[in-house]
Structure formats: structure tokens, C-alpha cells
Amino acid sequence: MRFCLVDRITKLEMGDHIEAVKAVSLAEEYLADHFPSFPILPGVFMLESLTEAAAWLVRASEDFAHSMILLAEAKNVTYKSFLKPGNLLETKVTCRRLAQDSSDFVGVGYCDGIEVVKGRFSLRHFNLSERSDKFAAVDARIVKHAREQLGVLLDTPLGTAKLGATNQAIC
């Protein structure tokens, strides 16, 4: 099962911050088990939504230099409320440090303007081909797919998301 916990990117400022949304839907498989009589978005998925948004910020800011962007560490994560089907999780992630192989962020998630999750976290970024040249083609496919996905995530009913002046060449 693959989870996509960013449905749309609403604002992207290269190297600085990103805003995104995740609509919680009863159609998502994991809600059948979490919990059958009281379905809620698992807290770890709230953190994953923040992480995925940050990963999109890294990809766009570095012009897709890395195929792999993974959560390395999470600190001081707090959860303040449940999210149920029909709720919209609005994430705001700010970059504290962006280096070639890692990055640090502060993220906050809101539902109806009320903070439901926040935390600090780090990502590490690399290419599979750094371990073996035979993975270069895999890196290229992953990056190509990520570029296409970002184009979809930036598409909104009103056209394109609010983009910073420096990110005109990301799609």
C-alpha cells in the first residue's frame, strides 16, 4: 500500500517554505482499521504529510537533484486533535537548513485554522547511483515521475498555486 499524504500544493517558495493540503477521505484503506467504529487519520500520517510537503520543497528547490528523500529524524512532535474523514489537513512547512545531503524543517498542520500537529524534523537526500552506477536509470525514472507528480500537485481549480518568484522553471 502506497500513501500519498499531499493532495495539493497551494504555495511554494523555493528554499524557504511550502503550504499543502491533504483531504482525509473515508475511502482510504487504513481508516478501516484505525479505528473501525471511530475512523481517524493516524498521527504518524499527519507527520508523514508534513514530511512529504518538505520533500517536495527540497525537490523543487534543488531542481530534482536527488531521487531519494527520506525522513531522518523527528523531534518534539505534538498532536493536539484527531482528524476524521471529511477534514482537511493544511500543512505549513518552513526550511531551517537546506544542504546537499540533508535538510531541517519546522512544520505545522491545521484543521479549520486550529493547530493539530507540529514538529521539527530532518530529511536526508541522496541518489541510488551513489551506491552503484547500475541504479542510474532507476534514479532517472524516479526523478521523471516526481517532476510529473509535482506538476499535478501544483495544479489547482483556479490555475496554478501561489508560487514564489524564483520557482518559475520547476515543471
- The name of the CATH superfamily reads Hotdog Thioesterase
**Structural class by SSE content:** alpha+beta
- The backbone outline, from C-alpha atoms, is globular
Total DSSP helices: 2
Task: Round the mean pLDDT to the nearest integer and report it.
Answer: 90
Give the tags:
single chain; 171 residues; alpha+beta; Thiol Ester Dehydrase, Chain A; seven-stranded mixed β-sheet; two-stranded antiparallel sheet; 2 helices; 9 strands; 22% helix; globular; disordered C terminus
Describe this structure in words.
The chain is globular. It is 22% helix and 38% strand. The chain has helices at residues 43-61, 136-154; strands at residues 8-13, 17-23, 68-79, 88-98, 102-111, 114-126, 155-156, 159-160, 162-163. The protein contains 2 helices and 9 strands. Strands 3-6-5-4-2-1-9 form a 7-stranded mixed β-sheet, covered by helices on one side. A two-stranded antiparallel sheet has the order 7-8. Strand 1 and strand 2 form a beta hairpin. Residues 156-160 and 165-171 have low confidence and may be disordered. The chain has a single domain, classed as Roll (Thiol Ester Dehydrase, Chain A). The chain is an alpha+beta fold and 171 residues long.
Task: Provide a brief overview of the structure.
22% of the residues lie in helices and 38% in strands. With 171 residues, the chain is an alpha+beta fold. The chain has a single domain (8-156), classed as Thiol Ester Dehydrase, Chain A.
